[in-house]
């Protein structure tokens, strides 16, 4: 009887001694590509710091570099890392992650530092804002980072000359998930993991298990060559805080790894003012503008990107969810120049106020003010405070330009709607932007001559109407001011309340008729007429007319100014 053959043991596949990650391999999303770009940036940063003597040879990934050449190769569409031996992959990646995901000690305050994002070490104010944004996007859960229990107050030099210092609360961070991410990629033998690895929110914000009852079926998994880039998405992407509870994540479109490695450092903010953004489109276009403004940049190479907004929702208040996303096309010269003008004329400004030192003194100061009009010896001494106040118009301009619309489209909403936070009319915040809007109107490159003509014609008409009122009320300051304010409100309500083309035309023509001979209208009526007769343009013409009212700085402007509402930007901690 023949003996049974012994079962043949399956041959274990050889563990790889290198890893190749392709930019356009199947399964590579925009987040994966941005992460692979971030890996390229980190590798280039290690090369640069080693060349400058900032890294010891014993700390390098791959130990001794043969002939000074690193054990990796960055090509336009892929990165290859050579571990030497399969079992040395763990040591290689541990050193790579340690040099790429750092914690920097700034005057006793520990803060997250990603060297691949910067050419030079940034200030504590930039790093503090970057860390705040990272905790609103990638590292939301408390278990993914270790923050100090108590916040420290940092004094940020807002203007760069020491004249205005803004206090920002900041919590030190001495550890975060990415620093030990290499452990998930390595098996027990120190080799590259052969099994798929679960993808979670800290490395790909928004990636979650669909249903906890079916975790194995609904979780997201990727092989090593896609998971490793995701860990470096925190480097390739740019996160910025909008306020204490809202963050924006900019995911750039990477088409060439070599070019992106040189462009990524241009995207990062350089100072505290650069970190102030008011919306997703605003953040993305400011990022593109920094690239455009560099000497080594050509307009055709400004990369496209996706801006994703993160904030709490009523159904998931414990976390920041992806609530909005907008695709920003490749940099367009005209649009970016328009936005550059908006950034210059409608920039965040530093407000200085005299505020009571605490709540008790505030109550006492209020009571003192109510009891007597004359100065009192009991008036509370007030300490100066500085804070940021951002533009309400620039986010609208950014959203319009990102969608290929005229930059002023939707100005009607700024004049009619309430602010969701303060519940006060948005138009009350426009008073300090009059000059900026006027400068934009004068300097911007208009698509049609009729657009600027409408604005200037309304300016002229308002100037003449207020001049008529001033002439009728000489010596009657109070009456003149009331009549001017009433006149301004009359046309604001007439334009903003127009719901049909006929209603708007009637209101605008009524203004022109009451103002008398209008030189601007007389010269440019052929350009203005199409905007009034078109059934598709009348809403834009209404926006232009309201823009004219908001930007009016001529005769009687001081008499019709409404009280400015200034609200500080809520700093993220």
Helix content: 40-55%
Instruction: Determine the N-to-C terminus distance.
Output: 80 Å
Q: Globular, elongated, flat, extended or rod-shaped: what is the shape?
A: elongated
Please report the number of helical segments.
Answer: 19
Using only C-alpha atoms, the radius of gyration works out to 29 Å
Quaternary state reads single chain
Alpha-beta classification: alpha+beta
Main beta-sheet strand count, sense and barrel state: 4 strands, antiparallel
Please give the number of β-strands: 17
Overall structural domain count: 2
Average pLDDT score: 87
Bin the strand percentage. Answer: 15-25%
Q: Unreliable segments (pLDDT under 50, ≥5 consecutive)?
A: 370-380
Describe this structure as you would to a colleague.
The chain is an alpha+beta fold and about 575 residues long. It has 2 domains: about 15-345, no CATH class; about 405-550, no CATH class. The chain is about 40% helix and about 15% strand. It is built from 19 helices and 17 strands. The chain has a 4-stranded antiparallel sheet. Helix 10 (about 335-345) runs antiparallel to helix 14, helix 15 (about 450-470) packs antiparallel against helix 16 (about 475-495) and helix 15 crosses helix 18 (about 520-535). Residues about 370-380 have low confidence and may be disordered.
